[in-house]
Amino acid sequence: MALRPQDLDKSAVYSSVWLRAHGMHPRELASSKLTRVLPGHVTRTDAPAGLRAIALVAQRQLIQGAVISRETAAELFRIPLPHELTHEGGAAVHLRVSDGAAARRTPLINVHLQMQAPVIRHHGVLMSHPVVAVQEIAPRLSHAELVICLDALVADRHGAAARVPLPELLGLIRARKGRGAAELRAAAIDVRERVWSPMETRMRLMLLGHGYPEPELNRPIRDPATGIVYYIDLAFPQWSIAIEYDGRHHLTDPRQQGADLHKNEVLHAQGWSVLRVSTADLHRPEDFFLRIEEVIHRRALSAA
């Protein structure tokens, strides 16, 4: 009986040679039921393999001993990346070798020749150290995108899969040389530990760039009635201003909407002015800044 795509395991990667040897018809192999994820390797289109499985095949079968690097390593560490640098966004799998293999570049895999650099084994995958992975892609990132990556690495909650405490991160960055090192050092100035999402990084940099003082990040506020502790995304305690970023789930998830309403009540009861912002405010922040200035003006009048 011929092997068919629906007979294959879900979330697995298969060699095209192996599939042909086990009876899969070339027509099935070339059909839309299978998706090429590496040269000579496919996965089920309706149940595709994840990036970790693909990286393991690349490392163990295609180029043995290679190190998963660049945006592939960064994504496996769950470092936030621009969509076009992710596997879903079409990025190739990146590996680096120091000898014994030639550099190659295809739409599915990029092999880079590079001198030895620190590595880490994460969930069975040998990868560039997180700081090295970020340095490798630093020239392709804006300053804000690079700070987002580093904020995720040092975050004490909701950050990357491999945390690097801030003092250690700064020491590693100071020691880095070569391409991307200068961009890392420039971004390190703006890195903070208690940033729990990329949009918090963007809001903080936007505020600092507009001349506002450093906001307090994820300030805890306790509801005296229930004991629930909420966290203000960015806070200016001197003006009792709480800035909250509302992503898509804040608008579509009923449970999140209920939590936001309760959080607003707790903050208002404790004298905070709550300013909720969205992605649109980050792209066109003029009205957002006017809202902040109006609250600061009101606070000044009431204190006079």
Structure description:
The protein is of the alpha+beta class. It folds into 3 domains: 5-49, no CATH class; 52-188, no CATH class; 198-303, VSR Endonuclease (Endonuclease, Chain A), CATH 3.40.960.10. It contains 13 helices and 13 strands. The chain has helices at 16-21, 26-29, 51-62, 70-76, 130-137, 143-154, 166-175, 181-188, 198-209, 248-252, 254-269, 279-283, 286-303; strands at 14-15, 34-38, 41-44, 67-68, 93-97, 104-105, 109-113, 119-122, 125-128, 216-222, 229-236, 241-245, 273-277. The longest helix has 18 residues, at 286-303.
Whole-number tally of structural domains: 3
Task: Please state how the strands of the largest beta sheet are arranged side by side.
Answer: 4-5-7-6
Segments where pLDDT lies below 50 for 5+ residues?
none
Q: What's the alpha carbon Rg, rounded to whole Å?
A: 24 Å
- Total beta-strand segments: 13
Q: Please, how many helices?
A: 13
Order of helices and strands: EHHEEHEHEEEEEHHHHHEEEHHEHH
Percent helix among the residues? 40-55%
* Binned strand content: 15-25%
Distance between the termini: 87 Å
Q: Report the structural category.
A: alpha+beta
Give a quick account of the main beta sheet: strands, pairing sense, barrel closure: 4 strands, mixed
Q: Mean of the pLDDT scores?
A: 92
Shape assignment: elongated
Give the secondary structure arrangement, pairings included:
Layout: E1 14-15, H1 16-21, H2 26-29, E2 34-38, E3 41-44, H3 51-62, E4 67-68, H4 70-76, E5 93-97, E6 104-105, E7 109-113, E8 119-122, E9 125-128, H5 130-137, H6 143-154, H7 166-175, H8 181-188, H9 198-209, E10 216-222, E11 229-236, E12 241-245, H10 248-252, H11 254-269, E13 273-277, H12 279-283, H13 286-303
Helix pairs in contact: 4-5, 6-8, 6-9
